[in-house]
Amino acid sequence: MVSKCANPDCVATFRYFHVGKLFRIETSAGLERRHSMGQDDAVLDHPRLRRLEFYWLCDKCASKMTLVFDRDAGMSVRANSRAESAAA
Known about the structure:
Blueprint: E1 21-29, H1 31-36, E2 49-57, H2 59-62, E3 65-70, E4 74-79, H3 81-87
Antiparallel strand pairs: 1-2, 3-4
């Protein structure tokens, strides 16, 4: 459940859908996830498992940042390229 801004440096709490920016990220659970679930022999017969995760940036953070998902590192907050070009 989304409860606060995804920016770790921000303390804004999530209250309304119309405030800030909500991100829906679809991640897939690969072979390592299936091994931990005891499904080793069924790997070839079934499609990859999918998981939806939701993240929220408050208005202030969303105006200058975005979220980036990396399969190895997970979710991270990055400066928005539009905000960087406007500051230059």
